[in-house]
């Protein structure tokens, strides 16, 4: 993509500032970037967990962890602990993987394959991956000493503080900030010709980024690009969130995702506080009921302040149309079970910088969104709870054909390789799918499974964790 001479970004949430930072880093002085934000329209203000891709974002900006983590109250994330989801297992851990797992990971695949073919062996993912031990032992997910390979890990952070930090970074490198409301979008033949601003001025640019959140003022409202909902496959459409000023003891480097009556709740450990949110379906749970259930789950009082949110799930048909690209919630949202939204933001911008052709770019981003959707839907199809919400969420008729084929092959003990080489594997690859299927106990019933291989793998992982990772809280304190 040849840089446009001028770019107007509308919206100053995490998506707008991530885009400003990455595009400024990529294009430098070749492009004048202006970010327009209505100071009276708040950002969504949630989004506190990441995938490992965010590491690359900061390195592209030339920021090391001690430059940004203390300012954003950030902690490390080794993966996600799912509890209460399965009928047969109390919990399972979806780790971020690394070369430290090579031996034990192979043992996991082997055990899981034997088990799905009926052998009485155990295949609990947490036994086979170092990240699970890192989280359990209260260690930082970043290795304490240099290793000859990358170790994948993500972060938790305060979303508001991250936006503020990115804004300072972008503005310090020449991005212009205009705190003014967008009043109207002028279009002609599927292109934006200018933006009318509430202060009576007009903004004209060669290219426009729609980062206006769920409103999608430029792409969906201005250019009329259609929305492809995921509501047939995903029931959740609301969340209630709260902050607890008490940080979690031991500061475990993991998000906890607990299944509740009509959805699931996250627990996110930050350095100075803990974030909670209950993502649920309004069809099965009233907002007051959800708030009460979340407060009880978080162990706070009945008058503890909460915030309610609603969201559409799905994606636009085209993310890039004419001279406009939507980034962030304006391009779509898959519910936050695997904390993938900022990963999709980053991927959209990185692919845009390299893009040669609009149609293939749009098809690629659609595959990423659909790939995330399928993996999230998988959690619900395999969950073992029996409340009405969970029964409805298990309805396989709404799953994509590829996902249904994957379940059939898994159940029949067949190889998954060719399926995961297609769209189903566009975001989540074999280790994640195996962890999901094994973790939620999609196996024939056996009596008294032998876990000698798992015990020995767990011991190895624990030794590796203790050898290569430091205490989480002490490691973060050293960054200050
Ligand atoms: C319940 C929930 C949990 C989530 N959890 C995660 C998570 O764990 N991990 C993750 O990666 N993501 C998560 N997300 C998604 C994440 O919050 C968003 O992807 C991220 O915050 C980016 O949002 P955004 O910048 O697109 O939109 P917003 O934050 O909504 O920003 C929109 C911007 O547009 C501006 N604007 C709006 N109208 C106008 C106007 N007329 N003129 C000028 N400016 C205007 C606003 O002022 C604001 O600056 C979650 C989302 C939800 C709903």
TrEMBL record:
What's in the keyword line of the UniProt record?
FAD, Flavoprotein, Nucleotide-binding
One of its Pfam families is Trp_halogenase
Q: Does the keyword Nucleotide-binding apply?
A: yes
What positions does the entry give for L-tryptophan binding? 338
For this entry, the protein name equals NAD(FAD)-dependent dehydrogenase
Q: SUPFAM superfamilies, from UniProt?
A: FAD/NAD(P)-binding domain
Q: Give the residues the record marks as binding FAD.
A: 12-15, 329
Question: Example GO molecular function term?
Answer: monooxygenase activity
List the InterPro entries: FAD/NAD-bd_sf, Flavin-dep_Halogenase_NPB, Flavin_halogenase, Trp_halogen
Gene3D superfamilies named among the record's database cross-references: FAD/NAD(P)-binding domain
Instruction: List the catalytic residues.
Output: 77
Which residues of this UniProt protein bind 7-chloro-L-tryptophan?
77
């Amino acid at each position: 993509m040849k840089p446009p001479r001028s770019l107007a970004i509308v919206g100053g949430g995490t998506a707008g500032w991530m885009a400003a930072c990455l595009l400024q880093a990529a294009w430098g002085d070749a492009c004048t970037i202006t970010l327009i934000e209505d100071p009276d329209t708040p950002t969504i203000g949630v989004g506190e967990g990441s995938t490992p891709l965010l590491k690359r974002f900061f390195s592209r900006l030339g920021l090391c962890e001690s430059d940004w983590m203390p300012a954003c109250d950030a902690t490390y994330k080794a993966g996600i602990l799912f509890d209460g989801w399965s009928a047969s297992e109390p919990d399972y851990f979806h780790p971020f993987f690394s070369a430290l797992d090579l031996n034990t990971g192979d043992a996991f695949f082997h055990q899981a394959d034997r088990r799905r073919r009926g052998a009485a062996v155990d295949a609990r993912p947490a036994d086979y991956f170092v990240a699970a031990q890192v989280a359990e032992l209260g260690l930082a997910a970043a290795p304490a000493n240099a290793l000859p390979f990358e170790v994948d890990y993500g972060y938790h952070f305060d979303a508001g503080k991250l936006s503020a930090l990115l804004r300072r970074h972008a503005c310090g490198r020449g991005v212009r900030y205009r705190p003014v409301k967008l009043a109207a979008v002028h279009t002609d033949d599927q292109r934006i010709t200018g933006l009318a601003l509430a202060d009576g001025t007009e903004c004209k640019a060669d290219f426009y980024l729609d980062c206006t959140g769920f409103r999608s003022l430029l792409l969906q409202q201005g250019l009329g690009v259609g929305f492809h909902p995921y509501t047939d496959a995903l029931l959740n459409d609301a969340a209630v969130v709260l902050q607890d000023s008490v940080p979690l003891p031991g500061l475990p480097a993991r998000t906890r995702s607990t299944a509740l009556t009509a959805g699931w709740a996250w627990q996110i450990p930050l350095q100075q506080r803990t974030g909670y949110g209950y993502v649920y379906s309004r069809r099965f749970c009233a907002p007051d009921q959800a708030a009460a259930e979340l407060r009880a789950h978080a162990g706070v009082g009945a008058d503890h302040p909460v915030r309610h949110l609603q969201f559409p799930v799905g994606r636009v048909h085209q993310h890039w149309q004419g001279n406009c690209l939507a980034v962030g919630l304006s391009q779509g949202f898959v519910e936050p079970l695997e904390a993938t939204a900022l990963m999709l933001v980053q991927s959209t911008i990185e692919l845009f910088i390299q893009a040669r052709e609009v149609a293939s770019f749009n098809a690629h981003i659609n595959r990423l969104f659909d790939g995330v959707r399928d993996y999230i839907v998988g959690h619900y199809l395999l969950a073992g709870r029996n409340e009405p919400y969970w029964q409805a969420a298990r309805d396989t008729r709404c799953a994509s054909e590829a996902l249904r084929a994957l379940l059939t092959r898994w159940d029949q003990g067949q190889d998954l390789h060719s399926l995961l080489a297609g769209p189903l594997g566009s975001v989540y690859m074999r280790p994640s799918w195996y962890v999901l299927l094994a973790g939620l106990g999609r196996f024939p019933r056996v009596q008294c499974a032998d876990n000698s291989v798992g015990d020995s793998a767990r011991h190895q992982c624990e030794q590796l964790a203790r050898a290569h990772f430091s205490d989480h809280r002490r490691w973060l304190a050293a960054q200050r």
